[in-house]
Amino acid sequence: MISVVMPTLNAEDHLARTLSALVPGVVEGMIKEVVIVDGGSDDATLEIADSTGCQIVKTDAERGLQLWQGCRATRGDWILIMHSNSQLGDGWMDQVQAHIKNFPLQAGYFHLRFDDPSIMVGLWAEMLALRARWLAMPSGDHGLLLSRALYDTVGGYKDQAAFEDVALSMALGRARLRPIGASLTTSAERFHARGWMLRLIGKSFSFLAYLLGIPPKPPVKKPS
Question: What Gene3D superfamilies does its record include (predicted)?
């Protein structure tokens, strides 16, 4: 029924934990397949994905391209897009089943949490929650569940360097987006490399620039 799509790049530290939270869905027959779209990992990411029975798609390390390729490879009637460092919380299966049954024409996003109790992390999580609620633009960290039919209707992900999640949310529109009660806990590790304040300011300015029509810069490609 559900195809899970997960972009990866050197995700060995958290991929196994993320996949383990999906096991009950596989056992119950809810999850048909897990598609790992790898952007060129040089750690054990692909070994973990292969050993757990995931389908592997290899592409460049550009999030929009990864998600476009991954969703194109799916065979399920529903698509669940989530990051490789995010774990679905307790009760997610019941919440997902309820969404599929009661809201087939809408896309759903989860309640975002970060695995860090600090004030700055909480501030950023609240800002993303407000963005999802008031602007109808959930971030990629929220995850997204939608039917294949709806995905195709709005044109799916765009092959762009960043903010592919915003582009898809804008295509869906407020009327076709709703929150799902289950939580999705995402790692805060990536923010610590540059510091939370710099990361928050940088992401905020980039988001505003994108809304004003300034295209995001393409990622730096690794030398071949």
Answer: Spore Coat Polysaccharide Biosynthesis Protein SpsA, Chain A
